[in-house]
Design goal:
With 303 residues, the chain is an alpha/beta fold. The protein has 3 domains: 143 residues, Rossmann fold, CATH 3.40.50; 35 residues, no CATH class; 90 residues. Helix content is 49%, strand content 13%. The protein has 15 helices and 9 strands. A 5-stranded parallel β-sheet has the order 2-5-8-1-9, with helices on both faces. Strand 6 and strand 7 form a beta hairpin. It is elongated. 31% of the residues are buried. The N terminus is likely disordered.
Length: 303
Amino acid sequence: MTAAGPQRPPVAGGGPDLLRERLAESGYLVDEGLAIACHLALRLHRPLFCEGDAGVGKTALASALAAVLDAPLIRLQCYEGIDASQALYDWDFPRQLLHLRAAEAVGVRDAARVEGELYDRRFLLARPLLRALETSPCVLLVDEIDRADDEFEAFLLELLSEYAVTVPELGTLRAAAPPVVVLTSNRTRDVHDALKRRCLYHWFAHPDFAREAAIVRRRLPGVAARLAEQVTAAVQALRGEDLLKPPGVAETIDWAEALAALGADEWDADLAVATLGSVLKYREDLERARALDLSAVLAARGV
């Protein structure tokens, strides 16, 4: 029998540096500020509200935390018009109807008993929020909360305050342990202060050159280091232009991957122009980028 290896300390019981190290091992690089915010979210059982432009790694943070904690990731994608029944629970009407018919078929005459059985837990369809309350541990991602309306925000605030929900037919369902909650917003509208006050807040800025290049190399280990740095420098130059939609880190990764897929191991101006659709998503932005001499920009930056 072989002796078991040394047990690694749990992330929740360690400090920000340990969490930062484990996130890096999972492929997600964070700065000190985000490491501290994540650490406090775990220790204080507070939701983490992540705000910033699209493509800067907000959603990926939830996936990385789930990997580090070895917990399932439960995602609620918000959209205009989402309501509590779509996010929390609903009754499985087809199965309830089948139950009624089965009761009739076997001659059950006790109407009160049959009606009571209709609202048994087995007929409850758990949507993401209820699944998160009933799954311990787990990471709950409430993605793009800024797309939901005020009424849903108020409902979510109440749920996150108690980590419990009342189902009239069943009573109060309460989480055995609060899930780790990450809320994201692309700031298409302002989220109410009441919800933000319930959370720890972190603004996701675009990373500096060194960290963004490191992220690209970590996510795309098969891409040449020089190409990763050149693409990163080109994207950072594009962010300095007056674009309708500045590219995020996700687009930097996509561009580097596209160039590498075409056989490039360093910057190629013609291939870069041909693959601009990997990094820019508006015609006006494409035209502005094509008018730039990105090769000259890279040379000026010494990359």
